[in-house]
Specification:
- The chain has about 300 residues and is an alpha/beta fold.
- It is about 30% helix and about 25% strand.
- The protein is built from ten helices and 13 strands.
- A five-stranded mixed beta sheet has the order 2-1-3-10-4, with helices on both faces. A five-stranded mixed beta sheet has the order 7-6-8-5-9, sandwiched between helices.
- Helix 4 links the parallel strand 6 and strand 7.
- Helix 8 packs parallel to helix 9.
C-alpha cells in the first residue's frame, strides 16, 4: 500500500510539542518524500490549567483534546510524549499506537542561573517543580532544598526563573534539547539521583485503528528497542494502577545482547519510604517483565502506599 498523499498531525500547541511534531515530519519526509504533512495544533486542558493536575484528570489532561481530534477525523496521526499518556486506563477505543520513536535522553536536568550543580545548592534553595516524582526524590536525597509548585510549558518556566520566582528549575533534558535550550542545563542528574518518569524521552505516534494506510506509513519510524522498553514500562505502570499523585518512577533498558532490564521505584510523597525493584530478562516478553517488576513492588507494599495517597 502506498503512503497517503497527506497526513494531518495533531499535537498540543506548546513550543515543545510543535518541535516534537517537526521531528516526526522530518523523519516521515525521509521515509515518504511524496507525502505532505500538515500540523493541527490543539490547546489541551493541561496546558490551560496551571493548578494541581489531579483536579483535571491528571496526565490525561494533556492528551484528551488530541485524542478527540484524532477520533473525530480532524487529523490522521497524533504525537504524544509517552510520559503524558495515562497507563491506568486503555487508549481511547478506536485508536492504537503505530510507532515509538527512538528514545531521547531520559535524565532530568537542573537549571541554575549561576551554574551550580544539585549537590552545590545551599540550604533553602527554591526549586520549581510540580512533579510528585521529583519532589519525593528530592525530599529523600536533598531534604534541605525547598520545592515550589511550578507548572507551565518549559519556556514559561524558564521565564519565571529569570524573573526570580524560584532559584532553580528541574526539567527534562530531552525537552530542553527539543526547544533548542540545552545551554541552560547546569547539571544532568544521573538516574540513581533522579529516577525518570515512565515513558521518559519517547514520542508515541497514535492512529485510528482502521486507518491502515497511515499506520503502514508511520510503522517504519518505530524503533524496536524503544518499543520493547515502553511495552515493559507501560505494563508495569498499568499493573500498579498509579495515579497522577503517585510518586512512581522507572525505566527499561534494551541491551545490545538482547537482554531487557527494568528498574522501578515507588515513593511516599515525603520521600521517607522508597520501594525498589530491578529485574533483567533475556528474550522474555517485555510485558511479562513489566508485570514481574510491578508484582515485586506490590509484595513490598506498593499497593497500600499508592492507595494511601490522595488524588
Amino acid at each position: 500500500m502506498s503512503a497517503p498523499e497527506l497526513i494531518r498531525i495533531v499535537s498540543r500547541d506548546s513550543p515543545m510539542a510543535l518541535a516534537q511534531v517537526e521531528r516526526v515530519r522530518t523523519e516521515l519526509a525521509a521515509l515518504h518524500p511524496a507525502t505532505v504533512t500538515e500540523v493541527v495544533p490543539v490547546r489541551t486542558t493541561g496546558d490551560k490549567w496551571l493548578g494541581d493536575l489531579s483536579k483535571v484528570e491528571g496526565k490525561g489532561a494533556f492528551t484528551k483534546e488530541v485524542d478527540a481530534a484524532l477520533l473525530a477525523g480532524e487529523a490522521d496521526l497524533a504525537v504524544h510524549c509517552v510520559k503524558d499518556i495515562p497507563a491506568d486506563r486503555p487508549l481511547p477505543a478506536g485508536t492504537t499506537f503505530a510507532a515509538f520513536l527512538e528514545r531521547d535522553d531520559i535524565r532530568d536536568a537542573l537549571i541554575h542561573p549561576e551554574g551550580l550543580t544539585l549537590d552545590q545548592l545551599p540550604d533553602g534553595t527554591r526549586i520549581g517543580t510540580s512533579s510528585v516524582r521529583r519532589v519525593a526524590q528530592l525530599a529523600a536525597s536533598h531534604p534541605h532544598l525547598e520545592c515550589v509548585p511550578f507548572r507551565g510549558n518549559a519556556n514559561r518556566r524558564l521565564a519565571k526563573l529569570a524573573e526570580g520566582e524560584v532559584d532553580a528549575l528541574l526539567l527534562a533534558a530531552a525537552g530542553l534539547h527539543r526547544i533548542g535550550r540545552p545551554e541552560m542545563i547546569s547539571d544532568l542528574l544521573d538516574t540513581e539521583t533522579m529516577c525518570p518518569p515512565i515513558g521518559a524521552g519517547v514520542l508515541a505516534l497514535q492512529c485510528r485503528e482502521g486507518d491502515t494506510a497511515t499506520i503502514e506509513a508511520v510503522t517504519g519510524l518505530n524503533h524496536p528497542g524503544t518499543y520493547r522498553e515502553i511495552t515493559a514500562e507501560r505494563m508495569f505502570l498499568h499493573v500498579l494502577q498509579g495515579h497522577c499523585n503517585s510518586p512512581i518512577a522507572g525505566y527499561a533498558t534494551a541491551h545490545r545482547n538482547g537482554d531487557l532490564s527494568l528498574r522501578a521505584c515507588v515513593f511516599t510523597p515525603d520521600g521517607k519510604t522508597v520501594l525498589n525493584a530491578h529485574e533483567w530478562a533475556g528474550p522474555l516478553d517485555p510485558a511479562t517483565l513489566g508485570t514481574s517488576v510491578a508484582v515485586a513492588l506490590l509484595r513490598q507494599g506498593a499497593r497500600e502506599l499508592i492507595d494511601g495517597i490522595a488524588h
